[in-house]
């Protein structure tokens, strides 16, 4: 059986070897090894509705859907971040770090995302340090996003400081 994507940029084939997914996009990653019948976007929404935030985030990380991952991240209150971070298994850290780097690039809630990053380093610091080679690309993109944000804030603060001096 062969199915085309509505965008025309990918297609999938169900064969005796399994499901094969072909895509023009390099960024498209489909990893079905972590999926089962209960891992669906509907299951993520159900977990969010039941306030099972850790479960919802893990399900969204398993699906590797950026929109669901971000939705779950923003559903967590700042008070609950430590509990949710401590429930995340190591194998999902890379996806989570990549999501934080993407979120910092758009900067919707800077302090909130930095709090997530800080808690992630506190809770999973040893795992991150021991497996730094595997996580290096994600960590570099996070560092780049944080550095860029710092530079933008520095420029804004300097500009404001000079404006205040002028107004005095």
Automatic annotation (TrEMBL):
The keyword Repeat applies. Transmembrane segments: none annotated. It comes from the Eukaryota. Residues 65-167 form the Small-subunit processome Utp12 domain. GO terms for cellular component: Pwp2p-containing subcomplex of 90S preribosome; small-subunit processome. InterPro entries: PWP2, SSU_processome_Utp12. Coiled coil: none annotated. Pfam families: Utp12. Keywords: Repeat, WD repeat. One of its GO terms (biological process) is maturation of SSU-rRNA from tricistronic rRNA transcript (SSU-rRNA, 5.8S rRNA, LSU-rRNA). This is Small-subunit processome Utp12 domain-containing protein. It comes from Malus domestica (Apple).
């Amino acid at each position: 059986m062969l199915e085309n994507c509505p965008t025309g940029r990918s297609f999938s084939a169900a064969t005796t070897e399994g499901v094969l997914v072909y895509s023009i996009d390099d960024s498209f990653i489909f990893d079905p090894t972590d999926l089962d019948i209960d891992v669906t976007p509907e299951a993520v929404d159900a977990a969010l509705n039941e306030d099972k935030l850790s479960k919802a985030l893990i399900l969204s990380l398993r699906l590797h859907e950026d929109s669901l991952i971000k939705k779950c991240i923003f559903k967590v209150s700042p008070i609950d971040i430590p509990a949710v971070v401590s429930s995340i298994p190591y194998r999902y850290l890379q996806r989570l770090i990549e999501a934080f780097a993407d979120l910092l690039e758009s900067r919707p809630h800077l302090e909130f995302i930095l709090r997530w990053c800080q808690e992630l380093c506190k809770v999973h610091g040893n795992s991150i340090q021991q497996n730094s080679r595997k996580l290096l690309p994600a960590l570099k993109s996070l560092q780049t996003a944080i550095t860029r944000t710092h530079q933008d804030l520095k420029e804004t603060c300097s500009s404001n400081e000079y404006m205040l001096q002028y107004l005095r």
